[in-house]
Design a protein that fits this description.
Jelly Rolls; six-stranded mixed beta sheet; about 375 residues; Rossmann fold; 2 domains; 8 helices; alpha/beta
Length: about 375
């Protein structure tokens, strides 16, 4: 049974994690922000919105196999090489099967000139999961977290049952930076939010707003989250503000208050966890910007001292975030909590920080397990 991309919405297949789609002649490409945000999203962020971290195809079927015809596009910056394109099939929210390829298109970024790139074209390809269990089962096919995806078709066994899945798990909205997008994870379910969603005593339905390099408290993101149902919201903010030196102490608390105020318009009593940055050695005491050196290690760059008044280090950001939560608690918001990011990944974990900024796959898994133990198994939720 072949289902072309133009027919996917009419047969019971759902796309948790996607809020919009690019309708292309050959395929369907998910986006992680709603259509109304398109005019407001900066071009550099639009690229990241199109990467489906946390997006999956969901269906119930008795098919003995699931086959996906896709085209992917990876990005890489030499001397690094393109990462693997990975797909995870989760069966009944428990068993996970993995598929990994080195195929599709690649975009090679020029490290010496911002905005300069070369597109290396590759062929579309097929991902297939065989020997699926008998009977009607629930499936979530997690799309790659580190590539643009164009879904061409889905193929199931002839005369298979296809049913939409009713997901009654609590819905968790999470907003963050590259350390929530997790391009360095080894598979889509290896991002720390995905690990946390399945590691807790109570599984949750993840909606990921982890945008690599683009967590700058944009109001269109706050409004998108405000308008979605949620039983838990978390915000992990701060590192991008240092990396880009995009906010100073005068602006940051006000912008964070505004983001939270917008969320509260739609979620009066929903628990919100405000998570501060994890450990980053060069930015703990020094303000940004933070740029990679010739070895790919991220380091802060000092500037004119007079021009850096009010610039933010990670330690200062954590102090301001803790103070803000205390202020809002005293003002009556009892469902806002602060979680120190160092509890998820601290100085003792630095060996799993190969570029001095992003955790490796083991570090991300540890973050997810720690978040689940503190939030889903702890006092926050």
């Amino acid at each position: 049974m072949l289902i072309n991309h133009s027919d996917l919405f009419g047969v019971g297949i759902q796309f948790p994690g996607a809020l919009d789609f690019d309708q292309r002649p050959a395929g369907l490409s998910p986006r992680r922000l709603p259509a109304w945000t398109r005019p407001q999203v900066p071009d550099v962020m639009d690229v990241i919105v199109r990467m489906p971290s946390g997006v999956r195809l969901s269906l119930a079927t008795d098919s003995a196999f699931i086959e996906l015809r896709v085209q992917s596009t990876r990005m890489f910056t030499p001397p690094a090489v393109p990462g693997h394109v990975s797909f995870d099939l989760m069966i009944n929210h428990q068993d996970i099967r993995h598929a990994q390829v080195d195929a599709g298109n690649s975009i090679q970024l020029n490290p010496a000139r911002s905005g300069d790139f070369e597109l290396i074209r590759g062929e579309a390809y097929t991902i297939r999961f065989d020997d699926l269990p008998a009977g009607v089962n629930q499936y979530e096919l997690w799309l790659p977290h580190n590539a643009f995806m164009e879904i061409r078709s889905v193929r199931l066994a002839n005369n298979s049952v296809i049913q939409p899945v009713t997901d009654d798990r609590p819905r968790w909205l999470h907003y963050g930076s590259s350390i929530s997008h997790c391009m360095e994870a080894d598979s889509p379910t290896g991002t720390w939010p995905a690990v946390a969603a399945y590691a807790g005593q109570q599984q949750v339905n993840l909606q990921s707003f982890g945008f690599a390099g683009q967590c700058h408290l944009d109001q269109f993101v706050a409004r998108a989250m405000r308008d979605l149902p949620a039983e838990l919201i978390s915000l992990k903010v701060g590192i991008n503000l240092v990396n880009m030196d995009s906010m100073r102490e005068r602006v940051f608390p006000s912008a964070l208050h505004g983001f939270l105020d917008t969320l509260r318009e739609g979620h009066k009593q929903t628990p919100i966890i405000l998570v501060s940055p994890i450990y980053c050695p060069s930015a703990e005491d020094s303000p940004g910007p933070t740029l990679p050196d010739q070895d790919g290690k991220f380091r802060t760059h000092e500037g004119n001292e007079r021009l850096r008044q009010g610039a933010l280090s990670l330690k200062r950001i954590r102090e301001l975030m803790a103070e803000l939560v205390s202020q809002r608690n005293q003002a009556g918001d009892a469902n806002l909590r602060y979680l120190d990011g160092l509890e998820l990944f601290g100085e003792a974990d630095a060996a799993d920080l190969p570029d001095l900024l992003h955790p490796n796959p083991a570090g991300y898994r540890r973050m997810g397990e720690r978040f689940a133990s503190r939030v889903f198994n702890g006092a926050y939720f």
